[in-house]
Design a protein that fits this description.
Helices cover 21% and strands 21% of the residues. With 554 residues, it is an alpha/beta fold. It has a domain at 165-218 and 329-494: Cholesterol Oxidase, domain 2 (2-Layer Sandwich). The strands form 5 sheets. Strands 3, 4, 14, 15, 16, 17, 20 and 21 form an 8-stranded mixed beta sheet that branches. Strands 1, 2, 7, 8, 9, 10 and 22 form a 7-stranded mixed beta sheet that branches. The longest helix has 18 residues, at 536-553. The protein is globular, with a radius of gyration of 23 Å.
Length: 554
């Protein structure tokens, strides 16, 4: 990690141009109108929008270091040497983050896998960019956050953030044998409709199509490339990396600044008289910071006080709220290995890509390395006896996994999504590091719903040319339910789509203000209810909406 990242600008070409420092280091002696903690998608969008007001001094703090080449990122395999690309910039290197070590993950700072770097998890995930259906906002979000309230936010996001379901520069769709096989299974035999996923975002019942990625010129995109590069040109926007925030300073219900560790030195960043702190560290870290700021479950605050982790804040100043860190959600997932004679699997390589494919990408931004490994996506719902719905999502990757990696195997990943009943909470371990607890299948209804969904799509497998390898096609619902709730390399894994740990009405109000505080906000996945789709799009929309609301507060 580097203690400070100078401002770096995006050069427009087929790739990203050389980066150069153009701004001085943010000063701890400066008073800031907005301090945003965490440079993930929500933090970048919120800070960028707030800095549009040139009269406001905005500081964006990031505990990690560089990621994309434009941020100073230099992690990369040898075949990228001499280019203006880091490993982050190349979509086809996405899966390598799970097998090739990186300083961009959270390491010992969080007891879960995630991105702790400029861009947060948007710098290490697949970049899937799915607009949630209208029903998600109208069913699971409060007044002021319904779909009609969010239309301007969604519009701004589309205007600012490029995306594509066919990112290769030559507009050729690569690695399509798995897509074709899945289409034959789901569309021809199971009654799904092939559709343009985001053009028809309201449709999430029996739909199938090509994944949408938030890429730009066949390189990883996201808010670092779209929003941040514009913000960095403003003199009132300041980015400080390598600044790991420890807690929010407050006087009663008023936040006065934050304390961070910068290059091993404890540093205080202070607010102006009318300033605001916005926590955007993600659904695990933001609750942690609230707890360490004396806001949370009193039993947890007592532990922190006994360990001298509250900065001397007396118990009389605590804001006791057991909703902080509660109701944490992640998608329970199951891998199903599918094999068929028409399928040709493709394994991406970090160090040794197929030379022709490396050349395609480096010379033209074409080929398999222009996108992450997902080749198809589909949705449906399960209707319960009481009429309520549980959302289901499937994505199919380009290769097999673990014990099933022959040349004719691909991996289906099944998620349970919106409407699930299970949730856990954010807990601090003996070293006061945050992590998830009790998230998956705490309510048996969820495993029944997911097993019912899998059983239904398996019924259309005969004659499709696809055979499941790790779970028999003839499995009963009870067999499937047992399989998905028994830990194995294929079941009960973490998807790391953390959300919902600081919910509206109990942890924050509808202005995103922390309950009990006047000028402290949470804007990230913590406030986003479980969605029918991957949460990244929804988190970005939440940041756009939060900017509108926070600005109105003055």
């Amino acid at each position: 990690m580097i203690p400070f990242l100078s401002v770096l600008f995006l050069a427009q070409a087929i790739g990203l141009g050389s980066a150069s420092p153009t701004q001085s280091k943010p000063r701890a002696t400066t008073l800031y109108d907005y301090i945003v903690v965490g440079s993930g998608p929500a933090g970048i969008i919120t800070a960028s929008r707030l800095s549009q007001n040139s009269a406001k001094n905005v500081l964006l703090l990031e505990g990690g270091g560089p990621s994309y080449y434009v941020t100073g990122g230099t992690e990369r395999p040898a075949w990228l040497a001499g280019t203006n690309l880091s490993r982050v910039d190349v979509p086809g290197l996405y899966l390598s983050i799970f097998s090739n070590p990186s300083s961009m993950t959270c390491g010992s700072n969080v007891n879960a896998f995630g991105g702790c770097t400029i861009g947060g998890s948007s710098a290490i995930n697949a970049g899937l960019f799915f607009e949630p259906p209208v029903s998600d906002f109208d069913t699971y979000f409060p007044t002021g956050w319904k779909h009609s309230d969010l239309v301007p936010s969604i519009s701004r996001l589309y205007q600012t953030q490029p995306s594509s379901n066919n990112p290769s520069a030559d507009q050729v769709r690569y690695l399509q044998s798995g897509y074709s096989a899945a289409k034959n299974w789901l569309v021809t035999r199971a009654g799904y409709t092939e559709t343009d996923i985001n053009a028809n975002s309201a449709q999430k019942t029996k739909v199938f199509g090509h994944p949408v990625y938030d890429y730009n010129n066949a390189q990883r995109g996201g808010p670092v490339i779209s929003y941040m590069q514009t913000a960095l040109k403003r003199t009132n926007f300041h980015l400080q990396s390598g600044a790991l925030v420890q807690r929010v300073l407050r006087s009663g219900s008023t936040a006065t600044g934050v304390v961070a560790i910068v290059n091993g030195v404890t540093t205080t960043y202070s607010l102006s008289a009318t300033g605001r702190v916005i926590l955007s560290g993600g659904a695990l870290r933001s609750p942690e910071l609230l707890m360490k700021s004396g806001i949370g479950d009193p039993a947890v605050l007592t532990r922190l006080q006994q360990a001298n982790k509250l900065g001397g804040l007396p118990s009389s100043s605590w804001i006791n709220n057991t909703a902080v860190g509660a109701a944490l959600f992640d998608n329970p997932n199951t891998f199903i290995e599918l094999s068929g004679p028409s399928v040709q699997s493709y394994v991406y390589s970090y160090d040794n890509p197929i030379p022709a494919d490396a050349a395609l990408y480096l010379q033209h931004r074409d080929g398999p390395y222009s996108f992450a490994s997902e080749i198809s996506v589909f949705w449906d719902t399960v209707k319960r006896t009481d009429g309520s719905l549980a959302g289901m999502q499937g994505t199919i990757g380009s290769a097999g996994y673990n014990g099933y990696q022959n040349s004719s195997t691909v991996t289906l990943n099944i998620y349970g999504t919106s409407g699930l009943k299970s949730s856990g909470k954010v807990v601090l371990d003996s070293n006061f590091v945050p992590g998830p607890s009790g998230v998956y299948y705490s309510n048996p209804q969820d495993s029944l719903d997911i097993a019912t969904f899998i059983h239904g799509i398996f019924a259309a497998l005969p004659g499709s040319g696809l055979t499941p390898l790790n779970l028999a096609q003839s499995s009963s619902i009870a067999d499937i339910q047992k399989y998905i709730t028994t830990y194995s390399p294929y079941a009960e894994g973490q998807v790391n789509h953390w959300s919902s740990s600081c919910r509206f009405g109990t942890c924050v109000d509808t202005n995103t203000t922390v309950i009990g505080m006047k000028n402290l906000h949470v804007v990230d996945g913590s406030i986003v209810a479980p969605l029918t789709v991957n949460p990244q799009f929804g988190i970005m929309v939440a940041a756009e909406r939060a900017w509108e609301l926070i600005t109105k507060l003055g």
